[in-house]
Design goal:
Length: 387
């Protein structure tokens, strides 16, 4: 008899749900259903392992262990207590409980979090005479609860550290882009390995790192560990086989048409350090340059960048002067290219003075942003200022 499929939820940056759904189907997931901020899917442990190893878009892979209606905190306690926690991990593992809610009628989420933690510990004490300790910083097992107005859902986190923590980036800029958001933006741009790619304001090189891994078919989770390795159900042989298969699919390191530049030497040093540590320094071509002075490295290609975003008044004034010049540079020097600019600055598209062919809402954490697409066709992109 075939075992009943496991249920999972993979959160992701908002705006990338459809991209993640497509990726999950390619990884063998079934019953894939996008939702706000993530994707529900079904599969077995192999699906879980492979998604953690190979997904570039998911933030985590959460195993759903409970889903039921509730009215009060006691019902939530009983639902959590009824679960066979001792079958899943030993009491020597540390735990942390996280709780999120939308339109929840209960007064205190902190109290509900405490009730879930108590239920887990009480169940262990009953079954084994021991209880797990709480570690809010680096727990062995993370337990995630979610409440809406009527239903309570509980998950065991199979990832551990968030999946955008690839274990590659050693230095970051002031406002680093999360790796899975960068990967999603590359997918939205339509970029494929072998197509020339340029980030002219590359900062610490997040777009470049993600593109280089895609170009060489390197699984994003190949150099890190996961929480599912601490579960009693962990299948070491299956996991080792999946890793070996992923390594076998990697392409040998070689120069790719991936280009990065930045005005600031310290940013470029950070990008170079990250690429070197990842073993990708010969894959990407870096140079220090002002975007307003560079030319397209190839006749056609895709430009993707996350320009600086001004918070203070002085910064905003500088950027208001910069953006029109960026638009001029794209117009004069990047004919035949498609440009994708990701920003949280609502003034950018107006100041660029170029016609956007597409604008995609995305979230960088809680910050609402847009990905603007500019198809650079000679003589056809400048807005008519007389209208």
């Amino acid at each position: 008899m075939k075992p009943k499929p496991l249920r999972f939820f993979a959160p992701c940056p908002r705006g990338l749900e459809s991209i993640l759904a497509d990726e999950l189907e390619q990884l063998g997931a079934t019953c894939v259903k996008p939702s706000n901020g993530g994707v529900y899917f079904q599969g077995d442990w192999e699906t879980c392992y492979r998604t953690n190893l190979e997904s570039r878009i998911a933030s985590r892979v959460l195993w759903q262990v409970a889903d039921q209606a509730y009215i009060n905190e006691d019902q939530i306690y009983k639902a959590a207590y009824a679960l066979p926690w001792n079958d899943w991990f030993p009491p020597t593992h540390t735990i942390r409980v996280n709780l999120a809610a939308i339109k929840c009628p209960l007064r205190s989420l902190d109290f509900v979090t405490l009730k879930i933690k108590d239920a887990v510990c009480d169940k262990f004490r009953e079954m084994s005479g021991k209880r797990p300790s709480v570690d809010t910083v680096q727990p062995d097992i993370r337990i995630h609860g979610f409440l809406d107005a009527r239903r309570f859902t509980l998950y065991v986190d199979t990832s551990g550290d968030a999946l955008f923590k690839r274990g590659l980036r050693k230095t970051a800029g002031d406002a680093p882009l999360r790796e899975n958001l960068a990967a999603g933006i590359l997918r939205l741009s339509g970029w494929k390995p072998g197509t020339p790619l340029l980030d002219p304001m590359c900062g610490s090189g997040t777009f470049l790192l993600e593109a280089a891994q895609m170009a060489l078919n390197i699984a994003p989770g190949i150099k890190r560990q996961f929480a599912f390795e601490r579960l009693n159900q962990f299948n070491t042989l299956l996991w080792n086989n999946l890793k070996e298969a992923a390594i076998a699919k990697q392409q040998p390191s070689s120069p790719q048409p991936i280009f990065g530049s930045d005005l600031y030497g310290d940013a470029l040093t950070a990008a170079q350090t990250n690429l070197t540590v990842a073993g990708l320094d010969d894959v990407v071509q870096l140079k220090q340059a002002n975007m307003l002075e560079i030319s397209a490295p190839t006749p056609t290609g895709i430009l993707v960048t996350n320009p600086p975003y001004g918070v203070r008044i002085g910064e905003q004034e500088k950027l208001a002067a910069l953006y029109p010049k960026v638009g001029d540079t794209l117009k004069r020097k990047f004919s035949g290219w498609n440009a994708y600019i990701f920003t949280g600055d609502p003034m950018l598209p107006k100041l660029m003075r170029l016609s956007t062919s597409r604008r995609t809402p995305l979230f960088n954490g809680a910050l609402e942003c847009r990905l603007f697409e500019y198809k650079m066709i000679a003589g056809g992109m400048r807005k008519d200022k007389t209208k």
